Each structure stands twice: as C-alpha cells, then as structure tokens.
Amino acid sequence: LVFQEIDYTKEAANAELFASNFKDMEYVKVPQILWDYTTPQVLTMEYVPGIKINKIQALDKLGVDRKRLSRYAVESYLEQILSHGFFHADPHPGNIAVDDVNGGRLIFYDFGMMGSISPNIREGLLETFYGVYEKDPDKVLQAMIQMGVLVPTGDMTAVRRTAQFFLNSFEERLAVQRRERELAAAELGFKKPLSKEEKMEKKKQRLAAIGEDLLAIAADQPFRFPATFTFVVRAFSGTI
C-alpha cells in the first residue's frame, strides 16, 4: 500500500496513472491534473462535480440506472485489481461520485491511498474467481498455492474439504439472497419494504457469517494472507 498524501505531486502522478488505465472506458472519469498549479504542497485538479454514490434519491432524480451503475462499480474494481494491478484503496462515498454523462459515470477523487498487486497475485485471484464460479475446490486451492496464500502440505484432504465447505456455504448464501429478493418482489404490494437500516443490518449479518466461516477455516489450516489482501477486501467492500 502506498500512502502519498504528503507530497501532492505523487498523488497527482497516481491520478494520471489511474486515468491512463481507464482511458478507453467511458463510464470512469478522473479529474485532470493542472500541473502548472500543482506543487508538493498544493494539488490542483479539474473541477468535476457529481453526486455521492450513496445518495440514492439524488441519483434517481439524476435519471441514472442504478443497477448499471452498480455493475460499473464492481467492474471498475475488477479491472483495477485483476488487469491493472493498481487500485484505489479508499473507496468511501466521499471519494466516488456520479454524474449523468454517458448515461451515468463514476468519478474518482483522492489518489493518496493506492494499492499495488503483483502479477502472480493477480493471476491467482483470477483463477480463484474461476474456481469459485465453476465450484471447483481443486482449482481454488491451486490458485491459492500460486499466490502463496496456501502452503501445500503432504495430505491436502482436510484443506480440500475446507475449500469445498466454503464453496457450498457461498452457494447457499447466494441462493438465500435470490429467494429473499424474489419474495420481496412478490410481496411488495402487500408488505412494507425494508428500511435502509434493516437492509444494512441484513448486509452486516451476511458479512459477519462469511467472516465466521473464514475464521473457522483459518484456525487450523496453513493459510497465509498477504497484507495487501486487507486493502483488496476493503476496496471491494466499499463498492458492494
């Protein structure tokens, strides 16, 4: 992780690299750096106003498609982590805004906290996603070994069983969420929709359950998660 908020010329360079990585994607906007007015103590950027990404009512008034916007947010981080190996590590609502250009565009601000991922970690993460999608515990384990997350032992039976348990749990949670959405849609005319607080509480419960699974798995297995993973998880949790 790179903390570079003291020297603003470094933050400006981060912004330009980030912008270059997304130059062919119309749904991402990075304010242009005005180098003539930028010094190590002063950062001057193009003025690009937008609505904070968590201001739902304002986004609806703007007329953007929130489902598409959600997909863009996730896709942008998959691009950053799996393709570029250089990602925005502080994606709170103050740092991501939306305007109505191109039908709804993500605007990124504040490039003082960026993360970097080595090629082997990126390849391993990609293979992990494929393994999860294909429900293949062996592919997941091989990807973890490639990343250095898993130290191979003589007998991998217990580790493989753990991976299968996690894949099954993940699939079950997805099925529960689908059923909840279908039920909510069916009962919308008869039942009061969940409040913002209730939705947040459900999300916390799901994340807590996943966290408990991870702790149970890590307790007795030879997993070694690099420090970078903390910021990868933080980045994704900020966009979900």
From TrEMBL:
Which GO cellular component does the record give, naming just one? membrane
Q: Which residues form the ABC1 atypical kinase-like domain?
A: 2-143
The source's domain of life comes to Eukaryota
Q: Which GO terms describe its biological process?
A: membrane lipid biosynthetic process; regulation of response to reactive oxygen species
- State the family it belongs to: Belongs to the protein kinase superfamily. ADCK protein kinase family.
| Protein name per UniProt | ABC1 atypical kinase-like domain-containing protein
The source organism is Punica granatum (Pomegranate)
What lineage is this protein's organism placed in?
Eukaryota, Viridiplantae, Streptophyta, Embryophyta, Tracheophyta
